[in-house]
Write a structure and sequence with these properties.
The protein is an alpha/beta fold and 182 residues long. The chain has 7 helices and 5 strands, in the order αβαβαααβββαα. The chain has a single domain, classed as Maf protein (Alpha-Beta Complex), CATH 3.90.950. Helices cover 41% and strands 17% of the residues. The chain is globular, with a radius of gyration of 16 Å.
Length: 182
């Protein structure tokens, strides 16, 4: 193959799991993942990278709403009021997995991959979030199109991209700080 060898798995100009893991490893930081609609695909994408164990702590696939509450600490009243497909739920999932697995960074995915709507949200409604050691969790709302597999794959790419953006945005602060308490 001529050119960039990573092009087979990551389109040109797109951030991949290897990119975020390399940044985390250089910083000596760790990552944990909370997944709902992606059902383990984010963790699979990360662990497909050689040396992922240097930065990846683990994941929780909290597909059921009560697991989001009980394992990840998402506020039960929030879940009852808004349902699981919500930006604040994603933020709380990211914070919760970070705390539960003792990681510097936590990421989360929640949404509707289809084939039917959920909690009054149409298919393709997705929220991804990132919680880091010294910033308020960032969340991104997505309106994705495609079939179930396509929506899930796009969600994985979106959360990896959001994590990369947050890592870059906090680069100056991270380089001068020690690991914060959770």
């Amino acid at each position: 193959m001529s050119g960039d060898e990573t092009a087979a798995t990551t389109p040109a100009g797109e951030v991949g799991a290897a990119d975020v893991l390399a940044l985390l490893r250089r910083r000596g930081q760790t990552l944990a993942v909370a997944e709902s609609l992606t059902g383990g695909l984010v963790a699979a994408e990360l662990t497909a990278v050689d040396g992922a164990s240097h930065a990846f702590r683990g994941s929780v696939t909290a597909y059921a709403t009560d697991l989001k509450r009980d394992l990840l600490g998402v506020d039960g009243a929030l879940l009852a009021e808004r349902g699981a497909v919500d930006a604040e739920v994603a933020r709380q999932m990211a914070r919760g997995v970070r705390r539960a697995l003792g990681a510097d960074w936590g990421v989360a995915t929640t949404g509707v991959a289809g084939p039917t709507s959920q909690d009054g949200q149409p298919v393709g409604t997705v929220h991804v979030a990132v919680a880091g050691p010294s910033n308020s969790p960032a969340a991104e709302a997505l309106r994705l199109e495609g079939d179930r597999a396509g929506i899930r794959a796009q969600s994985v790419r979106a959360v990896v991209k959001l994590l990369f953006s947050e890592l870059i945005a906090t680069a100056g602060a991270q380089d001068t700080e020690q690991h914060d308490e959770f």
